[in-house]
Design goal:
By secondary structure, this protein is an alpha+beta fold. It has one domain: Nuclear Transport Factor 2, Chain: A (Roll). It has helices at 9-30, 34-38, 50-53, 64-75, 151-157; strands at 41-48, 62-63, 80-92, 97-111, 114-129, 132-147. The radius of gyration is 16 Å and the shape is globular.
């Protein structure tokens, strides 16, 4: 039987830090804390939201400022959002590299009667830096959606 339990105090501390990173990612979006959200990432990050955008992901990393601006341009147009991240499975390749998967439900509310909801899971890579664990790669695997996807275009125009 394969055990995923941490093997050392350092690994336990790292596991907790990566779990916290996952939660800060969602919290930064929903609280519109763009400075805090930016601290979740390396200066350049690989992003693959192709399952959501239906366009190929860039093979090149993007500057964190560009990624945060792209997310902000959509999220700020909604009255409210709630990104629930659960079922994190965290593992480490070394003392400085790791990965985790986590389920996501992301609610986007324009108003009480107009909303868009997506569900799926993240597959992310993390790196330990002098400032703690950071996201190096974020891949969204969207499995389903509900509501009005056209709201994404509408709020981007606001």
């Amino acid at each position: 039987m394969h055990s995923t339990l941490p093997a050392s105090i350092d690994e336990i501390a790292s596991w907790h830090a990566v779990l916290d990173l996952s939660l800060r990612y969602a919290e930064g979006i929903d609280r519109r804390d763009w400075e805090g959200y930016a601290t979740c990432f390396l200066p350049e990050v690989r992003i693959d939201f192709s399952s959501f955008t239906h366009r190929p992901a860039s093979p090149e990393p993007v500057p964190v400022e560009a990624w945060v601006a792209a997310v902000r341009s959509t999220i700020d147009g909604f009255a409210a959002t709630q990104h629930s991240i659960t079922n994190q499975r965290i593992s480490f390749d070394s003392r400085t590299t790791g990965r985790y998967t986590a389920y996501i439900q992301a609610q986007h509310w324009a108003d009480r009667d107009r909303w868009y909801l997506i569900g799926g899971w993240y597959e992310n890579e993390v790196r330990r830096t002098a400032d703690g664990w950071k996201l190096a790669s974020v891949t969204l695997h969207q499995e389903w959606d509900a509501g009005d996807r056209a709201l994404l275009r509408e709020v981007n125009r606001r």
